[in-house]
Design brief:
The protein has 211 residues and is an alpha+beta fold. The protein has two domains: 35 residues; 163 residues. It has two helices and 14 strands, in the order αββββββββαββββββ. The strands form two sheets. Strands 3, 4, 5, 6, 9, 10, 11 and 14 form an eight-stranded antiparallel sheet that branches. A hairpin with a 2-residue loop joins strand 12 and strand 13. The chain is elongated and about 85 Å long. It is found in: Membrane.
């Protein structure tokens, strides 16, 4: 075989590889463009969360830095999308005080939320003799004695979007529900006695949602 024939064969192979690569790139571009167009037409919106109420069963700083509590919260979630469903997975709720977690994680069952659908969860967040930061213990006890405490009820989990038969990959879900929880028997507190030493407070607080 001559040198000219070898060169010609090599050129043909290189052209074939270039055409193959160009075809793959064009295909990927069309797929991505289609997804972007669908996404733009559907205009997906983040789920909406509201912290409706909190029932305090126990809230006690038993030592300077030892904390115990049991709180039942009612969380309202709504899917505002007309054509997109939401899968909620591996969700956990807990309470923070001054950026420190002060309760254990409580799991919320996985669920599918259809178009414009609503879900309501009523998990308990609790802790039992949990050590907290030295600077938070006295502040927490003082806030309680003063008649109320600011808490952040948080939800961490994962979501997937469903459009027709297409289901997206996982996205991280972060929900933060700041709420001022009052204590005491003042008429303005809005507390309702629901059991032995248990008081329910209507909060109706909107939550910040990040996906």
């Amino acid at each position: 075989m001559s040198v000219k024939e070898c060169t010609h064969h090599k050129d043909r192979k290189q052209k074939l590889i270039r055409r193959l690569c160009a075809g793959i790139l064009i295909f990927l571009f069309i797929v991505l463009l289609t997804i972007l167009l669908i996404w733009a037409i559907l205009q997906p919106k983040k789920p909406r969360f509201i912290l409706q109420d909190a029932t305090i069963f126990n809230f006690n700083v038993s030592a300077p830095n030892i904390f115990s509590t049991s709180i039942q919260v009612t969380i309202f979630s709504r899917n505002p999308n007309d054509n997109i469903g939401v899968y909620y997975e591996k969700m956990h709720v807990y309470a923070n005080y001054h950026n420190q977690q002060i309760t254990y994680y409580t799991q919320i069952p996985s669920v599918y939320q259809g178009h414009k659908d609503v879900n309501i969860w009523s998990p308990y967040v609790s802790s039992n003799n949990v050590p907290i930061a030295p600077y938070n213990g006295p502040d927490l006890k003082q806030d309680q004695q003063n008649g109320g405490v600011w808490l952040d009820f948080k939800i961490d989990g994962r979501v997937k979007w469903k459009v027709g038969t297409f289901t997206s990959g996982h996205y991280h879900l972060h929900v933060r529900c700041p709420a001022y929880v009052p204590f005491g028997n003042n008429p303005g507190d809005g507390g309702i006695i629901v059991g032995n030493n248990a008081v329910k407070y209507q909060l109706a607080r909107s939550c910040d949602v990040s996906v």
